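REQUEST ID: PR-0412
SUBMITTED BY: lab tech R.K.
PRIORITY: routine
TASK: structure prediction, single protein chain
INPUT:
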Amino acid sequence: MTIAHPALIWIKVKRRRADQPWANEELSNKMNARSEMKAGSEDAALLDAIAAIQRAHAEMLALCDRLEEIADSLPNEIDRRSCVLAARALGPAMVKVHRFEEQRLHSQFAARLAHSGEARETVERLKNEHFEDEGYAAELRDALRATARGGRAENPETLGFMLRGFFGALRRHIAFERDHVLPVLSSGD
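STATUS: complete
OUTPUT:
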């Protein structure tokens, strides 16, 4: 008497197609609906993230306009309130936007362009720009607060240079994301 190995029995015993769960049309439809719902919710989440970043970009561009107005008002026509508001906008909200981009959009961008070796390098460059922008924003925030307290810039040329350098770089960064990152994410490829 030979005892068959359980694996051999499994191999020899073949289920009928009707007994297989995926052959059941109703169950198959439910599974397809769930995967479509999951994919749909992922797509909806990505579209929501894109919309949130577009709103954040609009706010940051408005901040750039405010910073340009401050730079144009140097040295004699400083609006203290505008300096305070700009300094506040350069705070934690900017860092939150950057982290949101890095966590929700950059990974998707790199995944969509996985075939391209440049995608990873682009994401790394954007992260480095975020880091630099945050450092410059902290310095600029301190300078704007000091200007608001004193009612005048301690060194108008330096403050003007800081302002123009910062909002110029920020506008270029946003333009790149609008022209290159967001279209890839919106395309659905």
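NOTES: Residues 25-73 form the longest helix (49 residues).
REVIEWED BY: pending
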